[in-house]
Amino acid sequence: MWYLLKLMLKEEYRFHTSFSNRKGFILFPFMILFLTFIIAMSAPQLFQRMSYGQIILSLHASLFIYGISMGSFAFLGREYVERSSGKINFLISSPLLLPIKFRKTFVAFYLHDVIFYYIMVIIPITAGLILSVPAMGYSLISILFLSITLFICFVIGLAFCFFMSAIYIKNIPAFSVMIVALAVLMAGSILTSRDIGWFIPGMNIYLDKSIFHLGLALFYIIFFSVSAALFIEERFESVRPKYQNHLPRMTKRFRYFRGNSHLFAKEYLDLLRSRAITKIAFSFVIPLLIITFMSWLLNSHIVMEVEFNTVFYASMVGFFSVMIYYWLTTMDNLESFQVLPLDVPSIIKIKLALFIIISSIVSTIYIVIISGINDEFHLLGISLFIMFTTSFYIATSTAYLTGLRTHSYLFDISILIRFGILSALPLICLQIIVLNLNTYWFVAITALLITTIIMIIATIILYKGIDRKWARAAF
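RESULT FIELD:
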């Protein structure tokens, strides 16, 4: 097991550096270290707006959400196996050829993700906090203890996602029931004001030194991890279902895509047949539910009055929709495109067109529900406008910077910095404007209009730049 784990970590490093700059990948944790150091140095300003407990809550909740977002690897695990016939063969597919059980390789894959992100994220965060000790006078013991509780929250999120994705692989109807049950549980927690420590026990471990919550955290990790491992099939048989030829009919249906109607029809059929909609829903909707839950918590406990209205959620939905584009770029084995008369920009633009359709449907439903919950139907129009603008902008920015290799290129520090600038600046502007919408209505609406116009212009420029940037790129 440990030798396999070592090989998987080496494989992870080689996989990322094969598509991005090696120095950029290595500098990724140093960027996190630097950002953590800056935040730690600005703590006095944060304490003027939020209490100590609220900051600790935000830190642990962020790592919990990050763990969930990174836990999508179990969804990818089966696809890695099915794509093992290409140029790149992953170790997780080794049971197809070697006398080793799939359960062992999947568990090793899970542990390798825990170790990989601990090295790439948790250690840099800890180092950044330690560097601020001489200037800020923080307790070194307290920082080390904080890093442990943050890691606990991250592993809980990762284990939970591993558990859910294992259920998805085993039984899709059961997975759907679990998603509904999770939504009901979160809604019930909001209505009954249940202690957040039940969901994020790391916070109570740090603040109260609670043995009970430590036991609860260990129970979550062990239960989710062991249950997921038991759900993994011992044998893998690649299912090769047969389908009727619907491509001509779909090509006619999407004829308004001009010369690319056949490509869009192919992508649409791939989306249906791969059942990627479920993966997109899990990776996109679940974080939105958690953001809704966390917004309620902050709105209930924060010192100053901050109203998270429907426009706020609309801007957040737009930026979270990048997960949809991410999944659309993982559906295909891109190597097969190398022998076809296709170029990378054409496929990128087809992915973006499919993204627009999916994100428009899912995000619109979410915003309509949020506006109903908040009784803010008068903000529905502007919320939908902000949602569409931010969704198209962030997806186009991601496509321009990462092409069809989103998962790997975002570990390149140079690309990540550019992505951070393109995404963070408009997001910060929108959040500042939105949170003052009720107080300074006319000024806020004018600022929103100016910001969205700039984003629309940037979207057009970036979209046109895709041809120039990726014209000579290989699949």
